[in-house]
Amino acid sequence: MSRSSSPSPASGLRPPAHPAVRTLALACVAAIAVTGCARGSTNDKNNDPGIEFSSDAELQGKLDVMGFNRDADEVASTRTDLAEEAIKPATLSAPAGELDTQQLLSAIAAGKAPDLIYINRDELGSMAARKAVMPLDTCIEGEGINTDDFRESALAQVTFDGNVYGVPEFNQVQIIMANAEMLNSAGLSVQDIDGSNPQLITDAAEKMMQHKNGKLSAIGYDPKLPEFLPLWAMGEGAALVSEDGRTALLNDPKVVSALEFGIDLYEKQDGFGTVKSLRDSADFFGKGNQFATNALGAMPMEQWYVNILNDVSPDTPMAFTTMKTSAGEPMSFGTGSAWAIPSGGDNPQAACRFLKTMTTTDTWLAASKARSDDRVKDQKPFTGLFTANRTADEQIKEQFVDTNDYLASPWAEAVEASYEANNHSFAIPALPADAQFKQAWLDAVNRVLSGNASVTDSLETAQDEAQRALDQAWSEWEANSQASSSEQ
User: Fold this and answer.
1) Residue 56: Cβ within 10 Å count
2) What is the mean pLDDT of the chain?
3) Which residues contact 402 (CB under 8 A, 6 or more apart)?
4) What is the CATH number of the domain that holds 226?
5) Residues 421, 353: Cα–Cα separation, whole Å
6) CA distance 439 to 18
7) Is the pLDDT of residue 362 over 60?
8) Which end of the chain is more exposed for a tag (fewer CB within 10 A), N or C?
9) What's the first-to-final CA gap in the chain, in angstroms?
10) Coil, strand, or helix at residue 11?
11) Are residues 244 and 276 in the same domain?
12) Where do the record's region annotations for Disordered lie (predicted)?
């Protein structure tokens, strides 16, 4: 597993246990009311007309949840307690464990689907295309879920072919993190490494990298490839796929330029293999991390790593800023989790009430108070919870972050950068072949990093692979949808 993977389901800023898309999500939710009772409109298994959702309904039976650990930390347990209370007299069954999509699909095929799943948003498009999860439009309407609270990019990730299939939860974004001492020694500032001028990053990398006995002993700047290609491409103003999710854009000249920049950056630091070897030798989650040992000048990284650094190496001189586009605008690549309701579950009404409660502003505030109280008790700063609920984030910052007496420089700058990044996040939209698309661009980068292909050739190969996967998946989806319509 990549060390830059997302935090565990309920962890917020804790370590992992394992063009911006806007219009699509807004178009599909603009007409959804936020109160009342709703009933499905077709006889498709994914949207049974017999399923009625109402915020006033008394719920019954058992709610089976897959892929979530309620005891992961106080953020998870606080929210789960509130959601469990909200579904009473229905009862909750939520065995700890990550979601196994193959196990899920097998359970659905066998008629033993769970009622609710906790899933990575970049997997939801394929689940929707396979009709493994149901559209949530009537759930959203009936339970009165206020979609205006959610970030547009996060909604786009859970919106497929005009319908919402998930309710987004945490939002993981990246900021620039740097060793302030190495920056200062090289005569640099955070403006030199924020991405607004790629040449300045190259210069900074060469100034900050160090050698000992002829071997690289400190990385100047790690662009964190392959996983952050979408971030660097957007820095050049390029998306990897069209806004409607139908056209791969992996051979866009700006994507080519972004990858060439990252590869060149590694080459100027003795090559990717050398950088990766030094990166992997560090105690990433401990006091021997790269920043604490002066083995790294700067890198983009998910915001949860701020708390790791503050906990294990609080005295390390650090500097933080947001990633910028070449036009100087702040940006981040938003990823995260979502709640979705599988097709064929026994208790979709309880599932809808539960996911609503888990993601509402009041629930996030209760969880933030629990986390904040723990941090204050330990005399440590509370750096916030970064969610897909924009309204919740704003209130969390005002009530618990800005009032924390232990939040001082440089960690205060880290928090400000993280909030700015979260407010300027973009996302890859829901795709019917999301796994194949992601693998195509990851493979493209890895071929170049391993020296097996040029940037242009590798991205052309990836473009062909990705477009074939998208064309096939969309064709199958449309054929199945047409067949379902003709049966009604």
Assistant:
1) 9
2) 90
3) none
4) 3.40.190.10
5) 30
6) 18
7) yes
8) N
9) 45
10) coil
11) yes
12) 460-488
